[in-house]
Here is the input.
Amino acid sequence: MANILSMGVLFGLMGLSSAHASEAQASMLANTCNGCHGPNGVSQGPATPTIAGLNKFYLVESLKTYRDDANRPSTIMSRIAKGYSDAEIEKIAGHFSSLPFGRVAMQKTDEALAAKGKVLIKDLCESCHEKEGYAAEDYPVLAGQMLPYLRNNLMDFESGLRSIDANPNMSKKEKRKKKRILAELKDKHGAEGVEAVLQFFASRK
Amino acid sequence: MSNMNRRKFLRTTGGVALATGATLAAPSLANAAAGGKVVIVGGGVGGATTARYLKLGNPDIDVTLIEPKASYHTCFMSNEVIGGVRSLSQIEQTYDGLIKMGVKVMKDSVTGIDAAKKTVTTKSGSKLSFERCVVAPGIDFKVDEFASVGAFDKIPHAWKAGPQTALLRKQLEAMPDGGTVCLVAPTNPFRCPPGPYERTSLIASYLKQHKPKSKVVVIDRKDKFSKMNLFIQAWKDLYGYGTDNSMIEWRSGTSVGSIEAISATDMRVETLGGGTETFDVINYIPPQKAGVIAATIGLTNAGGWCDVDKTTFESKVHKGVHVLGDASVATKMPKSGYSANSQGKVCAAAIVNMLAGQPVGMPSYINTCYSIAGKDYGFSVTAVYRYSAEGDIIAGVEGAGGLSPMDASAEMRRREVEFAHSWYNNICKDTWG
Here is the structure.
């Protein structure tokens, strides 16, 4: 009995700090993000984006761009992304891409503008952001993303702070297409057109 | 491995561990719940996050959370209530989310914890057994010569949110234009290091709009403070700091010398540097220590805080009892809501594995603290942490984290406020469900 008990003590001790696995698990790394991005990466809003249900490649690209170069403006993400290795970024991205993109935030949107946006995105956005922005396979989900986040990013594309040219993962043809579409949205449809597109995507439930 | 698979996996291994426990004839395990039994003391950020993530990690764990208050007012964002831009009900969190996921929430006060017998006793006379106990009592105030508990009815601390927050707000509203507010900032270490200076900013913001002849005087006990350069820049940008018409006057610990007296009766503060002064409103934030229950059961060190294993948050005094959040010594994490949330996840993951007889995983932690200095004017400090056995600290990853840049654009300062408000909603959902 004494032997069994001391074995039990040893077994118990194994659970303490001396026996840590050498690398943090994906859930351990990813759960720390939930404080800002919401439980399971689904944001309650108003501005911080939902990161669940985005494709893994896009999440990896985003984290690495925040971490490694100046072509993705941020308030805080560049400081945070520098805390993770390539392997850890893969784990975090894998974790969130496997979770569903939830639409729980009560976003106030303008119905009339959203209806106008629904028409505009057919020609302008849907060839990449398919299924009215719900598709996640190749490009980030836009349907139900946070309105201020969408607005900030369009602002940054326009100012060049978020550089399409510097994106290492887009072909030249793709870059030309994106820049042409963004210019067309602004030049042909004006500020109201831009807002209509934003309102449409933000209004998706 | 998907969540569902992981849960199944843990449930299975939990079963195996229980069988092992039974053969060892440990009495506390003999009649335990299928997944193990955990009692959590305190329903703030640390306690609630641990409860939620224990249930997420293994729904079969029997989790009881004991908290005397029916709901919790977060200290974070309470400065917006004091500044008049948020209502008290907008910082109130209930326990409904935790109850819904199967946490037993008991409205009661813990009077004792017997670490050897593994029992918790409460004021109402309940006695609960546990395999693991989590103590998350937050802070209490060190008794000093300046403020007895009763004095806080007149000179509120407002450092535990709720009625005290409402009282300070009411006093600011009642103050005539031309009045002076005094904020006495605490010595290190204390809950929410940038908090007194955010509060100073948001009081100044309120006064600027509604009582422009008034001002805030900060009597500090330190010569520097968290995000100091960012705050001073914001005060210059927004409140005329450094000019004759400054709405904020900050006095360093050195210039104050020492505080000789603070009187709630005649609203008087006496310092070596400033002599005797009277104020219209005094916000006295006293020096702090771990919540009283921690000392009652002998968990605290000489400084009044609880030493823990920083990878599991298990007490260095009592095995089987974990302490986290503000009450713990989690060097170099600050005492903040985000730290408590992050620590709750590390602690919950450790307990899930311990109860299942599995090795504890490698932890990872984050802290992010936003401060709002005025309308559309926010900034932050952040860090990604790993445990470093060398020096036994939770060390910030080198090259990561840090402060918002001093030269950030107005647009980036505006976005930080948006993200601060989002952070509030998300961390509360992540903590209380």
User: Anything to note?
Assistant: Chain A touches chain B through 47 residues (CB under 8 Å).
